[in-house]
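A common beginner's mistake is to predict each chain separately and then try to dock the pieces by hand. The better habit, illustrated here, is to supply every component at once so that their relative placement is modeled jointly.
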Amino acid sequence: MHQAHNTLPLSHPQKESILKVGKEKKFQGENPEATSASAHIPIGKLPLQAEEKVLTESQEVYYEPTLREEAGLWELIVYLLNSLPTAVVALMILAFFAIIGTLIPQEPMGAETADYISKYGPLKFKIMKSLGFTNIYNTVYFNLVFLWIAISSVVCSITRLRRTLSLWYRPVYRFTEIFFSSQKEGYKHYDNKDITLEELVGSLKRAGLRVFVRNEEESASIYADKCFLRKWSAVVFHFSIIVIFIGGIIGKIWGFEGSVPVPEGETRTLTVNLKQIKNPIGRALTSYIKPYVFKLTLKDFRIEYDQHIKDPDLFKDLPVNETALREYYKYYVRDYVSELIGEYKGERREKRVLVNHPLGVGRTLFYQASFAQTGYITVSFDGREETYPVTPNTAYQVKPDGKLREVTSGTATPLGSEILFHPEPQGGVFPVKAGPLFKAGEPVGYLGPIGLFEVVGKTDRGQRFVLLNPKEWFELTLPGHTVKVKMADKVDDVSIFQYKHDPGTAILFTGWIGLILGVLITLYIPFVQVYLRWQRGKVLCYSTVQGAADKTLGYQLIDKILLKG
Amino acid sequence: MQTSFVYILIAYFTYLCAFFLYLYGITFKRGSAVLPFASVFLGIGLLSQLYWLIARTYEYWQQHKGFLLPATSLFEAIHFLAFLIILLYLIFEIVTKVRVFGAYVLALVLIGFTYLVFFLSGESGLRELPPALKSYWLVIHVSAMFISYASFTISAAIALYYVLKEKWNIGVKGIDSTFPPERIDRLSYLIASFGYPFLTAGIFLGAVWANEAWGRYWGWDPKETWAAIAWFIYTAYMHARLALGWKGFKAAVFNLVAYDGIIITFIGVNLISGSLGAESIHAYASGKGSLWTLAVMFLLLIVPLVIAFAPGKSRSSDASSPQHTSTKPSSKGKHP
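With all components supplied together, the output reads:
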């Protein structure tokens, strides 16, 4: 009959005696005098520090770099770079700076000096600017913390790799009885008279463990582990962070981005000279690269509109009589469609560019980013028609001479017509709407051009807004004259493309995938380690499990082997 | 098939019933008998939410002739997150047979539903969708992010119970009699570790989508930045647990701090950054917070930390208790 002595809180028929043994062993382990007084416990020949080292090195957890008292500056820096608490503090500092960037509008995202001054006042703005808070992600201190984390990742990854390799190639040390008795979590003691070392090793191997044996006199130390993949995955995801940094740096040095407007039916040449846009370091590293010259031809550009099949929420806030506003808001942009041809060094690519579907040419991507759509208004003055371009956020008035002119508060004349103010709805994105019209995803015709105008005038017509279209005239009041306006059929469309050349993106994404896989394996695949001391008649076992799994997996495995009889 | 606010109200009502049943179940001696009924109420509410989601997806299909995940406005986002929290919690109940944390998890869901019903009901309709949102990436990116948010919510709720119990000895017999603190601590960690890979993947998938739609994978947009901050904090939390051996009270407090990052990422960016002028270009990030919503959000952020850090009675001196601190296997001082 085999017997196991156990210091673990496991359910076991001999729990009482097991606990007694466990306590006794533990006490011995913690009290040097008691240990040495127990003559029947052989003390290992190796110093215990070596055993401590093996345990520390064989487990990825609880690693703490050490610093000698006489360490110099270089050693201190390496120590700090290797230290997890320092890395955590650096991460927190980075997070703190990033928070500032989310609370204060940032210059690279379009915030301008006037915005800051109106919001914070000149003094506060000056202080914020001098501290770099208005462009925090490009400050020296933010990038220094970033650099620290990057270098720390490299140092930590190398340390982790070294430790993993060490465990992979030579994980066996001598495990004395004190090694087991000093384990705070306890260990197991099996009285087993029958099993030979070969049988034990064979059983461990059959159970799928990597087994390493160190033979001693009449005894052996055995190290075994299962799912070493988890150890490698931890290395992989730490190195993945370096790969991500490398991808980012490559993109920063050798990449470029910007935007280019291309009018419909025209060709634009885009020249990007890295020497002109890079900082001195970037210039030095990219000096061998000749300017990139792209030719972009916009064959066709259209804005497709769809319409709500049910009243949208915003209608709830609109007065019922504002039919023009309701009609205007009924249509919304379905997609921006550019038939674009890109040419680079003899390579010619043609593609229908939509949002989420860029054109790639010369390893540069051209994205549908924005557009400009300008409408025209036709004025009929006593039967004489003339067409004028209208721009958003501008007021117009038909003057007594029959011309449509821009007006400001000082230039409006009581002798002219009502004032037509062309508002800037929805952030000025589409003051005029014109393009193929869809309903529930199906094409139903062509919209517009329709243009929204606020009528600011002498007569109250019961509504503030009028929606002009090319078919119906809208009558204005000008004593002695017949004045009518409508939208002209003509619309000027300009498609604006964002371009980006980033040779680091693929590397960065690869790193990120490595990071995700590494995290998944590290968290979910358990790494089981079993430390055994075999002697004829008894086996001592200590086991650890890392990862989301039952922490007694290792013991269960040994139980199966040793208690099978 | 069409959405109606009634389904939201049904879910709200059933979750309220479930909340009180869970509360009764863990407070009274023979209360555990009602816990299965609480789960049934949760299930009914979940079905109501599921119907609403399917109906809204159908409405999007009718409008756009394409599949769209109904998580494109603040209303839909809160609704979808509440749905995932309840779904994950029910799965958690089925897998672990643990029903006692229902009231804690539901508390936050009910705050979300109260916000939906009383403050956002006017925004429950179909909205215009920017072309960038009409992408399969919406489902992939948003689902990954929201699954992580839902996991972290459940994890934080359990961590909050742990902190209340350890620091203030505020607990309920129904939980304490069945769950030793170590198990509560481990449950909280395991659920957070379920969410962490989703957060990592969600940020990555968002970057891939941004690269495709906007031409850059990272733009320091407030929403992106806060997602990264939350990731930093959870990364630090995971390292603290796995590499520094943190357990128990310290780890639970860390969990709550990390969850603050999620609250700000999910809704704080909309309410705070928007109000301060640093607006996000993310879809459901529009809208500035009213005084009430801001106050509730700050309470959500601060109250758990006050509970954790305020001087108070501690049930056990956590720092010295071996099972609550580092379980470092060997330390020099203990060797002969």
